[in-house]
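Progress narrative, Year 2. Work on GlxA family transcriptional regulator from Chitinophaga silvisoli advanced from sequence curation to structure prediction during this period.
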Amino acid sequence: MAKKTVVIVPMPGTYMLDIAGPCDVFAAADQILREGLGTEGAGSGYNILLAAYGDEKTVPTRSGITMICPLTVDEITEPIDTFIVAGFPMALIQAGDRRLINWLKKNYPRLRRVGSICVGTYALAEAGILDGKNATTHWEHSRSFQEKYPSICVDTNPFYTKDGNVYTSGGVSSGVDLAMALVEEDYGREVAIQVARKLVLYLKRPGYQSQFANLLQLHSVANSLAGKLRPWILEHLDKEMGVEELATHLNMSIRNFTRVFTRETGMTPAKFVEKLRVEIARKYLEDSDYSMEQIATRCGLGGVVSMRRVFLRHMNVTPSDYRRTFRTSFAD
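Result:
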């Protein structure tokens, strides 16, 4: 069985983990297959190529390390099994640089698989590869991505998605999750498990991107009614507060307050308050020793059962599981 050629295109300004993470997964799988450890696929594996998208083979990363690619995508002569775009600065499109987009449009039909890591999803979208498909990207870009590409069904909950032969992954470390899934797809569960053990990774990481996401992008509401209300809401977080009370605090009618608030934030006042309660509860779970009952009371989330229900709705995880995952480092 011949090795599968995996081409990873590191884009300028990308985090090193976007690139190095998947490379290490494929490299570990290649070593395991080469050594023939408990698999019938001994002798197969991966040929990993880093290819620059344009003429310049040096690619600066956001981590301060410059990648040197041995060749460009136009110089690849061997058959490509899997083509992955790691990151993608939209400034290239704004500057009229569509070299990678044009390459993808021309060569996509000849690729067995194509994928993206983090905002590399934008490159696939620009090339039309994701039209009518399901995709994910970094959770920070969920709303803007959906607005820019309405024909794509974007869901930033999962760490990665598959639709046909197109694979997309979420923020940064999700590229590792995607690479693990591709190894399992290619060579089976046993090989993937050995890779996970070797690199001390999950075979399939539990949870969703939503556990890492900020429910409220406060910079976007700073000058809105929500921004004006936030300090007052935080002072009264342990109390019930309805739309009427919020409107009265701003000396506005309920109807006008609700209309303006929803237009500015894209959510109802009640939903904003609920998300703010969850955000503060998250901080208590991360940094404090308060019990679940105390946190639920302090954040106005009712009892433990009610807080659990709200957490599952917004975070796809229970408060206790969230605390175990995100508790302050080196805490007892």
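Residues 256 and 284 are 34 Å apart (CA to CA). The chain is about 45% helix and 15% strand.
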